[in-house]
Amino acid sequence: AAGVIQSPRHLIKEKRETATLKCYPIPRHDTVYWYQQGPGQDPQFLISFYEKMQSDKGSIPDRFSAQQFSDYHSELNMSSLELGDSALYFCASSLGLRNTEAFFGQGTRLTVV
Amino acid sequence: LAKTTQPISMDSYEGQEVNITCSHNNIATNDYITWYQQFPSQGPRFIIQGYKTKVTNEVASLFIPADRKSSTLSLPRVSLSDTAVYYCLVGDGRSGGSQGNLIFGKGTKLSVKP
Q1: pLDDT 10s per residue in chain A (113 long)?
Q2: CB A86 within 8 A of CB A110
Q3: What three-state secondary structure class fits B59?
Q4: Best mutation site among B102, B103, B106 for testing chain A: the one with the most A CBs within 10 Å?
Q5: Cα(B69)–Cα(B64) distance, rounded to whole angstroms?
Q6: Do B34 and B11 meet the contact criterion of CB atoms below 8 Å apart?
């Protein structure tokens, strides 16, 4: 069965650079969530989209932005990268805005040097 | 969203039954209880979800008392591969509205020993 696909799997950037993470949800899923997970930390909710509109916002820095496109894929744009942005970034998708059964991708490991 | 409280860590041995309890005193009428499992460097994986009483699937059972202020995830006969972090989430999984988030609190790190 198709799963949530994230790209790239690994990314190395320098401080102050920008990065774009992509997420392709499971077909027909209309809701996408983004999470940041630092080493030894729990996943932190960043932002979510439902039917291409922002649904909820968590602890997403102002330097980050995201959107969901017409084909339901989503992109997380990160600018002015800082060392502290180094983390695993997960995307999840679900069918329905308030369906708590979500499916997670394998994540993108971002390293800022 | 209702705040959840779980033990930080638990130890078990292979073949034992493991019960992880989650407290959610402020659970709302429409809230469902969902459990996720996460292995290192992997995304969380949905395990089970319930509203009241007992739910069982091929992986685990979920026990929810009548007052719904807590829930217990039961893993039968654990193996080494069950070593992971387990998260309890409480949120509105069924009704309409504009909210769309899945908030992960502090999970329980389960270590299964041979």
Answers
A1: 689 999 999 999 999 999 999 999 999 999 999 999 999 999 999 999 999 999 889 989 999 999 999 999 999 999 999 999 999 999 999 988 777 889 999 999 999 99
A2: yes
A3: coil
A4: B102
A5: 8
A6: no
- A96 with A7: CB under 8 angstroms? no
Q: How far apart, in whole angstroms, are the C-alpha atoms of residue B70 and residue B91?
A: 13
Q: Are B72 and B21 in contact (CB under 8 A)?
A: yes
Element (H, E) at A111: strand A108-112
Most B CBs within 10 A among A23, A30, A33, A100, hence the mutation to make, goes to: A100
Question: Which of B41, B43, B91 is opposite residue A100, by nearest beta carbon?
Answer: B91
Place of tokens 């893993």: B75
| Cα angle B85, B114, B84; round to 5 | 10
- The tokens of B99 are what? 């909210």
3-state SS string over B66-109? CCCCEEEEEECCCCHHHCEEEEEEEEECCCCCCCCCCCCCCCEE
Asked if B22 and B33 count as a contact pair (C-beta separation under 8 A), the reply is: yes
CA A92 to chain centre: 8
Q: How far apart are CA B71 and CA B59, in angstroms?
A: 16
Residues 85 through 104 of chain B touching chain A, CB cutoff 8 Å: 85, 87, 89, 91-104
Of the candidates B80, B32, B12, the one whose C-alpha atom is nearest the C-alpha of residue A96 is: B32
**CB–CB of A10/A19 below 8 Å?**
no
